[in-house]
Write a structure and sequence with these properties.
single chain; mainly alpha; 9 helices; 85% helix
Amino acid sequence: MIDYEQQFDDMGSDLQKKAELIEKAKEITAETDSRTVSNLQKQWKRIPSIDSAAESALDEEFTALIDTYYAGRNEKASANQKAKEDLIAEAKAVSTTDRFKQGTQKMDELMESWKKVGFTKDKALDDQLWEDFRAARKVFFDAKNDYYKQLKDKFSTAKKAKEDIIEKAAALVESADIKKAGNEFKKLLADWKNIGNAGREVEQELWNKFNESRQAFFEKQNAYYEEIKSHYAENLTKKRQLINEAQEICYKEEYTKEQTTRMKELQTEWKAIGFCGKDDEDKSWKIFRESMDKYFEGLRNKNNY
């Protein structure tokens, strides 16, 4: 005998279960995990079906909610695909830059954006998009690594070259040939500039060592030329004294044996004094020579007379 009362009770219970699943289905969004939606569908299928208007309405509502979910999911997947393709295009553009500091910052920003983008329609597509994005990043970071490796090698070479210059400069400080050493320091400075930077970590220290020798030499050079200048001044004073004496003898116009001997002695003393500087040497010699020429011309005129 059929228990119709029990059947009606069961039917009401099943409709209640489906109504409860519909309420849960209303809560899902495009961001809901597909396993949660799949679980709802499985639960729905396990509920016995009966041919009734009420159940048909529930079936349509549930199916509509699930369809809306998958439609939204597909739409979201398409948007995610577009977002990832845009990020790949940006990464490829950045991969060609040689402004590595700014490029690194941009690549980091793109990676953070990538992490926030969800999945596309299937794993194979996701994997391919990731490989394209990763390849663009690799091009950039490989170029960056190569650049800094070359820069490191360049710094190392420059450091060695500047250390050699520092060693030469230290030796020049002890040189006795001030003029030659001064020219060598000029050449070393030019070489230093042509070598280029040895890197922020050591460049200033290297320059300080080189400049220490330069300054020590310049002090020695200045002292040397001051001594020469003082010596020239002494020589000029002595030569001016000879000029004055020669002019006095000429002024007297006394062409005696003693005066003639003295004029000859003045020439000998002049040569013994030494150099007094190019400009003063030429000027003083011209004045001294004029007195000599004038005296001996007067002496010849007297003898001829």
